[in-house]
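User: My collaborator sent over this chain with a note saying "see what the structure looks like." That's all I know about it. Can you take a look?
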Amino acid sequence: MPHTLIDALWANWPLTIATTLAGYIVLVRALRYRRIAAIEAPFVDGQRPLSSMTVHEAYAIMAQLQELEFPRAFAKARRMALLKAGGIPTMSKLFAVTGQNNRRNAGKRAVDTEILLRESQSQPRDSARYAAAVARMNYLHARYRRANKITDVDLLHTLGDGLAEILNVVEREEWRGLTDVEKCALGIFHKNLGEDMLIPFDTLKSSAEGEDGTWRDGLHFAGKLTQWTVDYEEKAARPTATNDQYVRVYVDSALPWFIRPVVRQMLGGDLDDCMRISLGLESPSLVLSIILRLIRGARKFLLRHLALPRPAFLGVRLVHSAPNPKTKLYNFSRKGLQPWYMQATPWAKWGPGAMLVRLFGGKVPGSRGDRYFPQGYDLMTIGPEPQKGKGLEDMQSDIEIIRARGVATCPFSAAKEGAFN
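Assistant: Without extra context I'll predict from the sequence alone. Here is the result:
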């Protein structure tokens, strides 16, 4: 007869393991869905219509989604949206003629774009950092818009792809799909961002046949923008030499030669046929497709049934919350083989990650002196070298307008007449 509880548990170890595992699975199930329940709580059972969702509520929901629920999906969606921009011939031609679409400049341009997107996606609409990031984007686009080299339709497509890829990646690769409440928050964010980037929605309005030209709520807007984006790609995307150049610069040149074919196939597998052909990417082989499907399925199962939800203190921060105290500039975490804006700490130069980067032929912070700006970035001057320090007066005026616009509470309130500005 066992004399202690430990002896009893050990004597019946199969039952003990099974009971412990079952209890853990029940705990995961109970905790896994608490966040989604909290997000939906104000709008369930008709308590409030989605049209009453405020800008601040939408920001809080988006922050939870990209920092806690689906950080991997949101990061991948940003990359895919930037890649798909090169599948539209008017955009890839612009990238080619600006002189930024070459191996020397492409790495910095990609990181600068990523930073501006992260800053705008991670900060409240009425914050100084959100306003500065959007104002900087507006300034960098302005001269091309005046020359009609970037059209309103191009920018609307870029905005729409940012939303469409979030929906696509989450639906395809995550342990659960997005709810209508979460899609509504994404719709509000992208409508606000489009307004702040001065993107007209007239084309989107004309696509809403039989409707009165307004949107009921952020969910309705998200659906219309996503559908318009897909339809536009089917009409506009086609393979061109500049599309191929875009992929060779931004994909091929950023990868070691021995993994390049596999990555190209993986990217091709994440795109529909229209955009894959336009970008000149290959479909994944049968073996690679099976492997990717198994990995994706296993990840979904593990997250849904065996992984506890990510706690707030382990949230994935898109950008640093405070500037470097020495330089007063913001540093950035590595997103490739080039260490743009990374602080040259001993860990960043000699840690395991840095050694792996060296193995693949990448650079570490401090390489070639200040070549990669280890001091950090300034949102007022970030961008191509010829534009550094320019446009400050225009940006300051834009910042004031954007921040004033950010005080709006319910973009789709029934009391607000006319959704189009």
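A starting point for your reply to your collaborator: Confidence is low (pLDDT under 50) at residues 415-421.
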